[in-house]
Design brief:
Layout lengths: L1 H8 L13 H15 L1 H22 L3 H18 L1 H12 L5 H5 L6 H30 L10 H7 L3 H22 L2 H5 L6 H14 L1 H20 L5 H19 L4
């Protein structure tokens, strides 16, 4: 009896699916349908993303290492920031009424697991900020580059070929790891009492089972969010909700859901 109870209490592995090469475009199309069906709530979240992003960049423009960390932070913290939008897609899929209040408090459905995953992403962000500071100090010393132009000019002024190569290599490795563990983890965590380790492992399994598809999906996310930033952050009003809604559909298609 004790053995049966112990076995029942252990987290069960979640199966993942192999999907076709065109899957990311299906996810984006499904995400767009969610946006059209819930425009006020979706774009409302988008406005928040755009305002916060603009504020972060404005506050860090005079410090290039912080600026680069803030910009890349959108990609690293994106899965956590999109939780409310996952909930909106979940409700629409289930044919339930979707409210902003419900989506904003979705973390209550699995607070410890979501909180622990948030702590993990925060640790990664802080680590990247420190790595960024060290790299800038190594290449520029105490005299960090200063420019009166916009935030893109600041980043360009801080760059040289060796710096770009090392910075992008380290950033890409870190981003790839974060993407692998979080691609579908947070959409999964809002669905029930799933622990963060199970969610992260399932996300990695889904990524490894579909390497080409997930590489394309990551590239599409980078392109959409980057275009949103380059449009004075106005484009994030659409880009961030679109990616978040699509991420819900990625989770649903990549896993064998009960």
């Amino acid at each position: 009896m004790q053995s049966a109870t112990t076995t029942a209490s252990q987290p069960q592995p979640i199966e993942v699916r192999h999907v076709g090469a065109g899957a990311p475009f299906r996810w984006l199309a499904a995400g767009l349908r969610d946006m059209v069906a819930m425009p006020l709530a979706s774009l409302g979240y988008g406005v928040v993303f755009a305002v916060v992003g603009y504020a972060l960049v404005t506050l860090t423009t005079s410090r290039p290492h912080l600026l680069s960390a803030a910009v890349s932070g959108f990609f690293l913290a994106g899965p956590f920031l999109g939780m409310g939008l996952y909930r909106l897609s979940q409700c629409r899929e289930a044919g339930q009424p979707a409210t902003v209040r419900d989506s904003a408090t979705i973390w209550r459905s699995n607070p410890w697991s979501i909180g622990l995953f948030g702590v993990l992403l925060a640790f990664v962000l802080l680590s990247w900020e420190r790595i960024s500071a060290i790299l800038f100090a190594l290449f520029h010393g105490a005299s960090l580059p200063v420019t009166e132009g916009g935030w893109t000019d600041v980043l360009l002024a801080a760059a040289d070929p060796a710096f770009i190569a090392i910075y992008l290599t380290i950033g890409a490795v870190l981003a790839a790891g974060v993407f692998a563990i979080s691609a579908i983890a947070l959409p999964m965590l809002i669905t029930g009492p799933i622990d963060p380790v199970t969610a992260a492992i399932t996300s990695v399994k889904a990524t490894l089972a579909n390497p080409g598809v997930m590489l394309l999906w990551a590239a599409l996310i980078v392109v959409l969010v980057t275009l949103g930033m380059l449009s004075a952050f106005i484009g994030l009003i659409v880009a961030m909700p679109l990616v978040a809604h699509a991420s819900w559909h990625a989770y649903r298609e990549l896993t064998v859901n009960p």
